[in-house]
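Deliverable D4.2, example record:
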Amino acid sequence: MKSNKNLFLTALILTALTAGAWAQTVTASNAAPANGAVAPAPVTAADIQALKDALAAQQLQIQALRAQLQSKDPALQQVRSAGPSVATADAKAPESPAVVATNLQTTAQDKSAQNAGSSDERIRNLERQIKGIGPISFSGDIRLRSEPSFGGPSDGSLDRVRTRVRARFNAIANLGEQFRAGLTLASGDINDPISTNQTLTGFYTRKAMALDQAFVEFTPKDFKPLTLTGGKFRYPWYNTELTWDKDLNPEGAAETLAFNLNTPVLKRFALVGFQLPFAEMAGTAATDKRITQSITYGGQLQTTWQLGPRVKLSAYTGYYDYRGADSIALALARASSKNPQTPSSGALPLASGNPVQDSTYTTTATTIVTIDGTAYPTGVTSITNAQFASKFGLFDTIARFDIDTGHPRVPLSFIGDYVQNTEACGNLANIVAVPTNTATQTFKQTLNAPCNSHHRRGYWAEGTVGRLQKKGDLQLGYARIYIEREAVLGNFNYSDIRQGTNVSQHRFMSLYQLDRSVQLSFTALVGRPLGTTEPWLTRLQFDTVYIF
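Output generated by the structure prediction step:
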């Protein structure tokens, strides 16, 4: 079409020039030259051909300049043409509750599809890179939430209506061909690793923003299937909130080796390894005060299969080995000790978005004074020790089916996750005995619930329909969650359920993309402890998210 248009314009110009030249020739031949002036030379066929050549050369120059302009400004073209997409990390695909490893061999579209997650994770994947300074791009979101809760314990202790806000700001820098670095600031309680929500309370005091991510990623240019990551980063492995909350960003190092395969069925194969320290503990024995590190070692095998023209299966098998998990039990116990006279010492108190129900032994010391041979308690108590009855070696298997229905706005997704703690009740032999009472202290050991090694399994089943990419998109979802007491480490998984373990839970979701930068959602969480007749606790979440 463009070439025809150019040819037509050229012909029109030539016709005009020829007509003008003919008119001039006729006038010159019929009129005598004035004052002896010489008549202009007639336009020849050579002149017309020269004009044609000049126009053709100009057209080639215009096309070359247009191509050069497009090549110099790809970022502008991306912003104009792309819909909402993930800025990092993270942020993050949503989609359904899970997060998968990616590397620079994977396209941007693949990364958005792989970084699946909860409603929070979906927001991460809608954050767009719309502002940048050189190689640095910025993104973020602000969420407003109204959250009423009702039901649960008969004493009404969990009934409440609260307003919460979440703010996140991301900066990502591409440092040449092989390196990428990222930084994220997020709101929330700095002692709670599984929530970036900030409840609006505290007499209008200022709310904290803290370091949520700080990482460097290296992908060798000579071996792009390999990606090495260090710092505090998003999950490099795929998971659901059965085992890991989407607001938690682990710390340490991770390695991903991933290959995209051009075979009829197997499309992707990857191995992910990670080493994630989470605490340092100093010895208390008089002869052993070494500082030891608590750490999680883990790995995951990932595969993607094309089962048909419209059906894709992603399968993941992983293992998480928590070494030194008793440091978590001690930090949790000290955080729940609300005696204002005995501030915590040693390990930093660890908050949790929901009650941790793993079987735990807690030793408490009470200070006494002795008067005339009679001991009187002072009321001052402290936590001296806390230990889980279980060790935690989690074998986690996930299957995800993505189905193309033929309607771009109505894809289907199904996720199943099964986890088993292979070391349930494996720490009983290591429980420290209660110290002997002294003249100044008495000691007592309590157990929240007996450990049963058969209560080691957890299940997650979820289905979603719809997408969240363009204005007017709608997504609906349901998840069924069942977690036995010793199945997982209860302070790192889903923060919004009734409690971390020993729980039966339902989740209903509806999300609507009001605009490219605004999302509305409603979530209903209904759950109660296993083996009880306690009324179901219902938590409703009404969210408005602004993405920038």
